[in-house]
Write a structure and sequence with these properties.
The complex is a heterodimer of chains A (about 190) and B (about 325). With about 190 residues, chain A is α+β, with helices and mostly antiparallel strands. Chain A is built from 5 helices and 5 strands, in the order αβαββαββαα. Among the domains of chain A are: about 1-30; about 60-155, Alpha-Beta Plaits, CATH 3.30.70.3270. Chain B has about 325 residues and is an all-alpha fold. A two-stranded antiparallel ribbon of chain B has the order 1-2. The longest helix of chain B has about 40 residues, at about 1-40. Classes of the chains: A alpha+beta (about 190), B mainly alpha (about 325). The interface of A and B includes residues 27 and 38 of A. The structure holds iron/sulfur cluster (2 copies).
């Protein structure tokens, strides 16, 4: 009889000590945080530099030689999950395709970045600039002129028409990068 | 006759003073709590309205006052509107009996620094805390909403469980002071505060008072995680504001009662009485914020277990021990 009481008492003491320790640790942890100071970044005063690949405001970039990159292939418009890109394709006298008009409705864009992934020419790109909210929802519809910029964005070197093998004023058959001169098939005859 | 008039004006002045301090403090306790909670969680807390958010309580007040006061179609109109008033006024009324300083003597007349020295002040205080739960229970019932009703029921159950421990824990103090009057209890602590001789009673009183004021970890009636906001879920505008105000005044009541029963009330070295009382009240409020930042909410059965199986027996044992000591010495 006696040992059982002793063991029961000791067990109770153990539980009590555990409770006291748990309480002490809890209060100690919060107190430590009180003197650690806040981690908050106060937004309008301090703007954290965002990583280059963070996704917000969309731009239409240009080639390294300054011409517009977009070839109006409709891929971005097709992949966009909320259907907020629309355009009309056209072809210039130089042989380059371009978008006659190009429109993104930022009221609907969810900044998923799929358009950027789909784009074969690196034309459409998302930028870290996110403070583009407006009072008037119609002002959220951006036209081509609002989207175009005169730099290459994240992809500094790519020039679609230099590789594509499409004949334009600037490059004929066999004049593109890594492209061989066309072969006269008849010379291949045995 | 002129003496009567003078007494009346002095009383009015005291009431005005106490009400102003209590309401101002309640408003700024909200800010202090939000700021401190922010710090406890490594945040900043409100800092947009004025420097350090000093105007935040005013902004909150304006917001609450201009919001629409919605009374639901299904609600019991009269009771619904009355409930927050009960909570806020019961909390405020408790301050009528809190002594806040040494009596001052002007022209041979002694002016006690307490609004009303009732000889059963302690019972009055307990009566008011019990009544304030009517606000919670009735508000929860009159809202005609299941969450509010659950919150109200929980509030009533919690009050019944902890009121007992609260009352029992204070019996040793009454035995030592030999009076129910709060002024006498403070006077009995002229030599040393009761917390030194009654630490167990202090702990029991503190825990049950915390439960009475419905703050974390005893915020079962509100329980925003499971009941939305519990008994005040259907309230809006200043009626919600009154519940809110009541809670923060209740914090001060708790601090003041603990100060009166265990820490010698307004007594303290060097500083004048009212300042000491304020320091003690604010100190306890800060401790309550700390508790809120640390502890999670109790489960309903844990709450009942703590009240009935631990606090009440402990309080009873404490009474017996105190009685033995008083008889023996
Ligand atoms: S980021 Fe997504 S939603 Fe926005 S335009 Fe591109 S594909 Fe559409
Ligand atoms: S932005 Fe890119 S994907 Fe979209 S139409 Fe132009 S080239 Fe095609």
């Amino acid at each position: 009889m006696q040992p059982i009481i002793v063991i029961g008492f000791l067990n109770n003491m153990k539980v009590l000590i555990e409770i006291a320790y748990a309480l002490y640790m809890g209060f100690y942890t919060t107190l430590k945080n009180l003197f650690r100071g806040p981690f908050t970044e106060e937004y309008p005063e301090y703007k954290r530099p965002l990583p280059a690949r963070s996704r917000a405001q969309i731009i239409l970039t240009s080639d390294p030689d300054g011409q517009e990159r977009c070839v109006a292939c409709y891929l971005c418009s097709a992949v966009c999950p909320v259907d907020c890109i629309s355009m009309q394709a056209a072809e210039a006298d130089s042989g380059r395709r371009y978008a006659k008009w190009f429109r993104i409705n930022f009221g609907r864009c969810i900044f998923c970045g799929l358009c950027e992934e789909a784009c074969p020419t690196s034309a459409i790109q998302l930028t870290p600039f996110f403070e583009n909210s407006k009072r008037d929802i119609l002002k959220m519809v951006y036209e081509k002129a609002d989207l175009q910029v005169d730099h290459c964005g994240k992809d500094k070197n790519y020039n679609f028409y230099a590789y594509a093998g499409i004949v334009t004023k600037s490059a004929g058959k066999g004049e593109h990068v890594k492209e061989e001169k066309p072969v006269d098939v008849r010379t291949n005859m045995p | 006759m002129w003496l009567w008039t003078l007494g009346y004006f002095i009383l009015m002045a005291k009431i005005t003073l106490v009400l102003t301090v209590v309401l101002l403090l309640a408003a700024y306790l909200v800010l202090v709590e939000r700021k401190l909670l922010g710090r406890f969680q490594a945040r900043i807390g409100p800092n947009r309205a004025g420097i350090f958010g000093i105007l935040q309580p005013i902004a909150d007040g304006i917001k609450l006052l201009v919001k629409e006061d919605v009374v639901l179609d299904g609600a019991e109109r009269g009771i619904f509107q009355l409930a927050p008033v009960i909570v806020a006024s019961m909390a405020l009324l408790t301050f009528a009996i809190i002594p806040f300083g040494k009596p001052i003597i002007i022209g041979g007349h002694e002016i006690p620094m307490v609004i009303s020295d009732i000889n059963v002040g302690l019972l009055y205080a307990f009566a008011l805390t019990s009544l304030s739960v009517y606000g919670v229970a009735l508000g929860g019932w009159a809202s005609n909403s299941k969450y509010a009703l659950l919150g109200g029921i929980r509030g009533a159950a919690q009050m019944i469980s902890y009121e007992l421990a609260l009352g029992l824990s204070i019996v040793p103090v009454v035995m030592m002071a030999g009076s129910f009057s709060l002024v006498e209890i403070v006077n009995a602590q002229a030599k040393w505060p009761f917390i030194i001789v009654q630490p167990l009673a202090f702990i029991i009183f503190f825990i049950s008072a915390l439960a009475e004021s419905k703050r974390i970890p005893f915020d079962m009636p509100e329980a925003e995680a499971e009941l939305g906001a519990g008994y005040h879920i259907e309230y809006s505008g200043m009626r919600f504001g009154l519940f809110f105000l009541g809670e923060y005044v209740q914090m001060q009541v708790l601090g003041a009662l603990i100060a009166v029963f265990f820490l010698g009330g307004w007594r303290g070295p060097f500083l004048p009485g009212p300042i000491w009382l304020l320091i003690k009240i604010i100190g306890f409020s800060i401790i309550m914020v700390w508790i809120r930042a640390t502890l999670p909410r109790f489960r309903y059965d844990q709450l009942m277990t703590l009240g009935w199986k631990i606090l009440i027996p402990a309080a009873l044992i404490n009474i017996v021990i105190t009685g033995v000591f008083i008889v023996a010495f």
